[in-house]
Design goal:
With about 210 residues, the protein is an alpha/beta fold. About 35% of the residues lie in helices and about 25% in strands. The protein has helices spanning about 45-50, 70-80, 95-105, 110-120, 140-150, 170-185, 195-200, and strands spanning about 5-15, 15-30, 30-35, 60-65, 65, 80, 155-160, 190-195, 205-210. The strands form 2 sheets. It has a 5-stranded parallel β-sheet with strand order 6-7-8-3-9, with helices on both faces.
Amino acid sequence: MEWIVETNQLTKVYDGIRAVDGVDLRIREGEIFGFLGPNGAGKTTTILMLLGLTEPTSGEVKVFGYNATKNPLRVKRITGYLPENVGFYEYLTARENLTYITRLNDIGSEEASSRIEEVLSLVGLLEVADREVGKFSRGMLQRLGIAATLVKEPKLVILDEPTLGIDPEGVEQILALITRMKQEQNITILLSSHLLHQVQKICDRIGIISQG
């Protein structure tokens, strides 16, 4: 399957306003695809339709051959999603938060334990795995968010503005981590951002959206 994400004239209208207007999008398996556009361009709305979290007004979206509107649960099982504002239980540790996520995804405790160790190591948080998340920096929270997307072993990961509000060193760490996800985990990645220089640095192809 060459195209693992396909949209055909994808459109979303809110109160007469076209937030997304006839988008045709195709993403190849194994690539990092940059979804570039200014704030308010329609990136997040498009992502929500890809995940089956909101229904399109018209058009069609398929992820690994599944219609995201008709089969949203199947799409969610194979897709990891990091929203712009990631949220965790601050009074729980990083490991405890990830354990909770594995339970929500019906992953057995023994398998969950090994997966959690693996993803915490991948994102560079193994040494602080038992620290309460409320004490984490913004960059650490974003890396934990990426770990949370990876713990269910997705085929596709969607990252919505993953470097927003992070210092330059943290940005470099996140971009390097995304590249490793592709190279070492063979994961297809959709990177949504308004920052051209970051998208150009690591993406294989770029799609630009403006005013829907």
